[in-house]
UniProtKB/TrEMBL annotation, chains A, B, C, D:
This is tRNA(His) guanylyltransferase. It comes from the Eukaryota. GTP binds at residues 85-86. One of its GO terms (biological process) is tRNA modification. Transmembrane segments: none annotated.
Length: 316, 316, 316, 316
């Protein structure tokens, strides 16, 4: 029961202790952003069993977000989270030294905390459906990203993936639920028309890259009588979780450009570290459904990349 | 919600997908025993908060064991578990190919499943103490052991450690609870007398190695009026969890000696694999408090090392 | 010039020393056999440049073997080597603790030593062809094998590979050199007839597995007027390098069966270790062309698996 | 002899091929600078054996530099090298994809090539001292650095280390060679006076950080009658090896600041890549003894960080 551990040696103990030498060290490369991504295990079965609505069950998404918020409260070293469907990514700042950056510790702690809250909060979101074994569980892994650009590209990757999958699934389930098609029929319909298949879909928002158009939306509208733009933001964009400070005027801060210059863990004064900790604890953790691909999101929230807490916004 | 994932490419997606190349492969060495050990995080605080009894809280131990049983039910690839205090070790057979032996997958799945059940079953064991944030959580890591001897030495190491810590803690808390000492006083008392300090304690059972004696027990008895031998087995030996088949006469089976010769994953016929799976599913998973250091435990349960299910015992 | 290194700290030095934290530890799993295999880099070009004879250049093979012997002399921790063509495998015993089993150290030392001797001894084997840049070089990697069976299977794999490639190449070059075919023609000839293509060739020796026949040899003989059996052993079997002690009567020693039981580095007395070292230094390192697939090779040379030096054979 | 390898399967071969699954993947993290540092093995003995001059043997340093130049000629992916005493660091650009960034391949190839040239060129620098076994050899390891600042700090670390060791060794050997002291006496003398011990020595050049002074130099001059400033640059600064292009006016290029923004391997047109390759091959590789700690070195040679070849300087 978490009693004090013996550190000293004992004749018999010392005969077996050599087995400790088989443990491998797994420190993640310093000065890199650590992404821990967790994924629901066997959620297809789980969805069926508890009757999750298709293509998106709002209660299930809210439960994921509630668990993510709790993880970020318990682990203040996480600066931002991004969730979609049954997966969630948590980002540790590149200067983070939690558990000496040991991979197993970081991954297992995030996964364990998330799983605990998911089960604990289940009844809040599914009051009429008590959990029974096998319980929902998650696996996880860590990936290191050396630069801010890599990290942002990772976030963009997940959000583009969210969009593509959601557009496809929305169309697919509309065909079934409103069009009366069967699953195979709907799949075939989409394949033949090559309309909303994940492979050729374009993002609906305007990107300077010019690769994105609004055409598909019109096609979807005319063919399937649905306006994808009116779909809930949580489905189209996924969920971003972060500590809320006062927004900053874009352009007034150059965090994204300078943060890569940071070469090693900042040595803060103890007072400064304490202050930062307090402000972080005070900050509200919010769940929003914003575009994380464009610069604007990052420019207005410099604390996400700098890891320096901003101003606590006044309540209005 | 576990909808079908897009596998195809998209212009924008492909711009970001390079971030997948930053993932590292983490396959564990084939033909080695994989031990996943999990540990409670910050359980000292947890013990205090929920008033766990000292030095051992039976409800808390039973909850750990219940969670471990559930883990082994959900993950039939685990052949044996060993738990003490707030830690649990789970062993995957050296031929196991679950998740292609990917370390992150194995560790995170075990940790997640355990955490989920720990929280889910909490109210069964602590009906009057509802859980509140921060919830209990666990970290975990994997270690590979090449030979049966290494694996058994690992198990012995944990059990000797259990014994040493329990003997010390039992004495320590007796001094406090029955002797009216304070924590510092008790610690000092034990240090000065050098009696039951973890460093010089000997195991109380008879080992052929001759390094173990019953003397300490008598000292403990005369000084502190407690007979360590009468302490519950669960405290002295920890808990072993495994599938229960008919015991085998020692000497009739040479598993421990021959299992190291197994060089690669056995290629079973499909029927055989199905049969094994069914028998495994049918077997009762039991929690016992046995000596896992001596040969007897392993000799009588050859299925633990061979991974071939034994005979289902008849109910009496 | 290998002067004493400063270990103390300096103001400026300490500003930069954090970069040492980026080094990863790379200890290889204890109690496993370590195979370091090296491969010639760009040897196709090298062969052409220095006019190596096809399919086997005896001088080049002898040079490889001479370099391998020198490596084993300089690194007594290597118990056995196996070479074919421009590759060589060196085996460190599973109890080996050289360089604390650090992978980079082991691999780079073997590769460096081999390369140094290859260049140094070049003129002995190719007296008329002075080396010029770019010099021959080798890459290398380490692989761990948990059991004797794994290790022997590794050795068998390399020797079967040697056989298959040599049989194919011998036929291929006979068609060109004696049959007057061009390279493409010879390749096509072999593909159509499906005769000696690496995919369907059978080993020529008798194996209990029954998968091997002498038929192919006859086909080769009648079609291409060559008797593969008369080819030099070095080409057919590759080269095994090891320390030479008195052979042991097969069956009198059970090394292969018991060596897996060894769970941890043996703690020898200092005198014993010194004695072993001396005997090892005294032993002649020999290059032979033997079958390493069958048990006989290992049974008669128990020191290869036990790592205990045998008796130095008397000179006759 | 680098004949074509069989890729197809064979009954016996396939029985053993499972051993390939024991190979671990070792791709280094993308978008990081890869430093491969090699170190002479047992060079203390080597120095004694071949009578290297103390504290610095010019022939030995020239041989190291000649081998390093050859390595960089054979491996154009290396952008810069830095050598001191019997160690050499080679830097691969963060966008480098040689051997898919496999650690073993990179380390072993550098070590092998260096060793081959060291032995091959030995007689040029030590014409009167033929090499004999055991031959000189080197070990090596790879370290990844995520940012330009990390990389420059690594280079600075090695150069400060060079300075500190050289100042100490120069003083130490002056005491012996000119002062007639014994080794122990000299060591004691330096320890007592705390004068030139590596721990408190300051760099002799002017650094904006203000931590460096010229005082020590004067102390050294008055006490030991030697002017450290007059020592050869190669001893004081070590050797930098790089491709020589036209120097750039400092400030006209912002490579160091922008190179961190590069997030992934640049996709060049084939023509561009070919052009770069040709220019690189045309560039002279030079060995210089410059200060690599200050910005000036890097600002004037933007190609070192950008990996884009500069202008070939006109011969005058």
């Amino acid at each position: 029961m978490a009693n004090s551990k013996a550190t000293a040696t004992n004749t018999l103990l010392s005969r077996f202790e050599y087995v400790k030498d088989f443990e491998r060290s797994d420190y993640l490369l310093p000065n890199t952003w650590v992404v821990v991504r967790i994924d629901g295990k066997g959620f297809t079965k789980l969805c069926a069993r508890y009757g999750f609505e298709k293509p998106n069950d709002r209660r299930a998404l809210d439960l994921m977000n509630a668990a993510a918020k709790a993880v970020m409260t318990d682990l203040p070293d996480i600066t931002i989270g991004y969730g979609v469907s049954d997966e969630y990514s948590f980002i540790f700042h590149k200067t983070c030294t939690l558990y000496d950056r040991r991979e197993s510790k970081l991954v297992s702690t995030v996964v364990s905390t998330f799983s605990a809250y998911y089960v604990h909060l289940w009844s809040t979101y599914f009051p009429d459906m008590p959990l029974a074994p096998p319980l929902p569980s998650f696996d996880g892994r860590a990936v290191c990203y050396p630069s801010v650009q890599n990290l942002r590209d990772y976030m963009s990757w997940r959000q583009v993936d969210c969009h593509i999958n959601n557009l496809y699934n929305t169309t697919f389930w509309t065909l079934i639920q409103q069009g009366g098609m069967g699953a195979t029929e709907a799949e075939e319909f989409l394949k033949v028309r090559d309309v909303a298949s994940p492979s050729n879909v374009k993002l609906l928002t305007d990107y300077p890259q010019g690769t994105l158009s609004k055409d598909k939306n019109e096609i979807l509208y005319s063919k399937f009588h649905m306006n994808y733009n009116n779909e809930p933001e949580i489905n189209k964009k996924g969920s971003v979780v972060f500590r809320d400070y006062e927004l900053v005027e874009p352009g007034s801060d150059k965090v994204a450009e300078t943060i890569d210059d940071l070469a090693e863990p900042v040595t803060q004064s103890k007072t400064q570290a304490e202050n930062d900790k307090k402000r972080r604890a005070k900050a509200r953790i919010v769940v929003e459904h914003l575009d994380v691909i464009k610069d604007d999101f990052w420019d207005r929230r410099p604390w996400l990349l700098s890891n320096k807490p901003g101003k606590i916004p006044k309540l209005t």
